[in-house]
Amino acid sequence: MSGSWQAALLIARRWFLLKQHWGIARLIFWFSVLGISIGVSALTIVSSIFKGLHDSIYAVLLEQEPHLLLLPEQGRALREIGALDSLLRHLPEARLSVPVLSERVVVARQGALAPALFTAAAESLLQRSTLQQGILLGEPMLRAQRAVLLGAALADRLRALPGDTVELLTPAALERLALGIPTGRAASAVVVGIVRPGVVEQSSFAVYADTVFGRTLIDIPPGSYSAVQVWLHDIKYTDAVATSLRQKLARHGVIVQPWQERHRQLYDVLRLERLGTTLVLALIVLVATFGVTASLVMSVVQKQRDIGILRALGISAREVQRIYLLQGIGVGAIGTVLGALLGGLFYWGQRRYGWLRLDPSRYILSQVPVELSAWDIATIGLIAFMLAIVAALYPAARAARLHPAAVLREE
What we know:
Strand 2 and strand 3 (112-121) form a beta hairpin. Strands 2-3-8-5-7-6 form a six-stranded mixed barrel, surrounded by four helices. It has 14 helices and ten strands. The two termini are 34 Å apart. The protein folds into two domains: 3-61 and 266-410, no CATH class; 75-252, no CATH class. The model has no long low-confidence stretch (mean pLDDT 78). By secondary structure, it is α+β, with helices and mostly antiparallel strands.
């Protein structure tokens, strides 16, 4: 550090950090430091919570949700399932592909009715998927000839438990009933397990079964499927794999739907909430920087005589400007460090002790998730630090414009 910077630093520290001359300017100064600290800590805490929620949604949403869904472009069935299965088997990023049959149905039990989405797949593939990890009651094995797994909320609405029998009505059966055409008995099935899917809303309408039972219920050509669910080794490959499959399957009438497209509304809401909250909390830092400007301008007015004497002793206007820039740097550094420490303390405490807890009977998570990276802290701290420096530019320029002769003559 050059001698001029050392002198500016010494004067800046003496004017604002010594325990004398307490006044409104210094009071505003320290309130500005406090405001920046609160703003940085609040932004750090909110950023960690939103990132934790985002990562938790990734984990929970994709626990049973496929990363890619292959759908027929026209009609109700994928007919070239052999070629499609061969393509997916030779795809290095693919971990598991599950051809499924799906149909909207109405589930009935003892007079209670509930709409549901019936999904059927080979039992061996269901076992290899992560669906069995969500089993709450019963077992994931579909040993019975007509066995189904019910989503937890759907089972609660029907008051169904493992071992109970439910009736399944397809749209075709409902249409025949509405027209007064005899349909015979509805397809009955035995509930062998209660499952909680990755997405809470799916728990209200999820029904799972094996392919054999699915073909007896759904009117679909032999060897065809409603869709193919694909899981990847890592979700970061989703976009690249989706682009590659779209190019290869463009002529086969197959739609490739990544998981982001199926849940776009959810992520748009999360992104907008995070943006809105961040902007509101950023106003705290912005208001605090106005306080920095006000306190330094008042300091310039109070220190006119001292500035005039320093200029008369040979200190240049640029060196006077450095004094106030260093004060802005000091405000930004102190406020940023304190705010980052408070935000880091909350993150550590929430991760270790779970200060903010959630009701597990109403939410999937037992506590508010948090996730924080050094990059987040650095970004928030740098923005607050730069705002404090920008707030010091006007007072520094005003102090540098003071003419020593005019100041001393007024004094």
